[in-house]
Every structure is written in C-alpha cells, then in structure tokens.
Amino acid sequence: MAEIDWNKSRVWTAEMIVAERERLSQLEYGRWGRAIEIETHRRIRLSVATYAYEIADNPIWPDSQWDVVAQQINPKLGTCHPIIDEFFAAEFSPMTGMWIHKHPELAGIKKIYEQHYAHRR
Q1: What does the alpha-carbon distance between residue 120 and residue 27 come to, in Å, rounded to a whole number?
Q2: What pLDDT is recorded for position 13?
Q3: Which of 119, 105, 121 is closest to 46 using CA atoms?
Q4: Per-residue pLDDT tens digits for 44-84
Q5: Residue 80: left if φ>0, alpha if ψ -120 to 50, beta else—which one?
Q6: What is the per-residue burial (b if ≥16 Cβ within 10 Å, else e) of 42-67?
Q7: What does the angle CA 95 – CA 96 – CA 102 come to, to the nearest 5 degrees?
Q8: Are 85 and 76 in contact (CB under 8 A)?
Q9: At a CB cut-off of 8 Å and minimum separation 6, what does 66 contact?
Q10: pTM to 2 decimals?
Q11: 8 Å CB contact between 104 and 90
Q12: Exposure letters 77-115 (e unless 16+ CB within 10 A, then b)
C-alpha cells in the first residue's frame, strides 16, 4: 500500500471552498450573465409574454412588468442569432407587442408558451 504524503494532501476547509467559489465566479468565461446571454434571455421571456398577451389572450405578466422588460431590450445588440437580431432591429418596439405577429420563431415561442403557461387559464 502506498504511503500518503500528508504534505501534498489538500484538505479543503469551508473557508477555502468559499474562496475558490468566489475565484471561479470571477472568471469571465465561467459565469453566466454576459451581455449577450442576458439580452437573449430577455428577448425570449418578452417574446413568450407578448405571445401570451397578443395571440393567446392569456397574459402571464402584468403590464408593468412587460413595460420594464421591453425598455431593457437592446435591439442593436447582436446575440449571434442573425435572423432574430435582424428582426429585433427592424420590427421590435417597446411601445406595443404587435411585433410578435412577425416573429421569425413564432412556432418556437408558441411551444414554450404551451409547455409552461397555457395551463394557467
């Protein structure tokens, strides 16, 4: 049996674990929430909420929440989805949800709505 070299062994204390988590959270590529990810997430959430209101006639957000998120959308930010980026740049308006009728991924938006919100009628 091999002898354990206790000098090379690393015992992690609670403080060491917390410090390592903090160090890892500071790595740019190791954390979620860069501008592109946040914008993509907002666009999806807003699109589903808009679909629910404008098409399904089943609002899932109060108007005030929709207004806040709509104002946060940056239609000029590229999200690595060229068709969606072009759509938001050309069609999106934070003043109305009518743009949802022209959304190029309307079938996908509908699917998300049906899986997560349609049962809330």
Answers
A1: 39
A2: 62
A3: 105
A4: 999 999 999 999 999 999 999 999 999 999 999 999 899 99
A5: left
A6: bbebbbbbbbbbebbeebbbeeeebe
A7: 130
A8: no
A9: 46, 49, 50, 53, 97
A10: 0.73
A11: no
A12: bebeeeebbebbeeebebeebebbeebebeeebbebbee
Which tokens in the block code for residue 7?
Answer: 């000098």
Task: Indicate the angle between helix axes 63-72 and 35-54, nearest 10 degrees.
Answer: 140
Q: Could you tell me the two tokens for 42?
A: 């907002």
Output 9 or 55, whichever has higher pLDDT. 55
Are the C-beta atoms of residues 99 and 86 closer than 8 Å to each other? no
The Cα–Cα gap between 88 and 115 comes to: 24
Q: What is the pLDDT of residue 1?
A: 45
Residues in the chain: 121
Alpha helices, DSSP H only, in the chain?
Answer: 14-25, 35-54, 63-72, 82-91, 106-116
Distance CA 89, CA 92 (A): 6
